[in-house]
Amino acid sequence: MNQPDPGTPAPASAPPRPASTTRDLTTGPIAGTLLKFALPILAGNVLQSLNGSINAIWVGRYLGENALTAAANANSILFFLIGSVFGIGMAATILIGQSMGARDLAQARRVIGTSATFFTVVSIAIALLGLPLARHILAAIGTPAAALPLAEAYLRFIFLAMPFLYLFSWVSAILRGAGDTRTPFAFLLLAVALDIIGNPLLIFGIGPFPKLGIAGSALSTLIANAVSLAALLWWLRRKDHHLWIEWKDRALFKPDLAILRALIVKGVPMGLQMVVISAAMIAMIGMVNGHGIDTTAAYGAAGQLWTYVQMPAMAIGAACSSMAAQNVGARNWSRVDATARTGTMFNFLLTGALIAPIILFDHATLSLFLPQGSPSIEIARHLNHIAIWAFMFFGVTMVLSGVVRSTGAVIPPLLILGFALWGIRVPFAKLLQPWLGVDAIWWSFPASSVCSMLMSIAYFRWGRWREAKMLQQPAAVAVPAEVPSEAPSLVADQAHNAPTDP
Question: Where in the cell is it found (predicted)?
Answer without folding.
Answer: Cell inner membrane
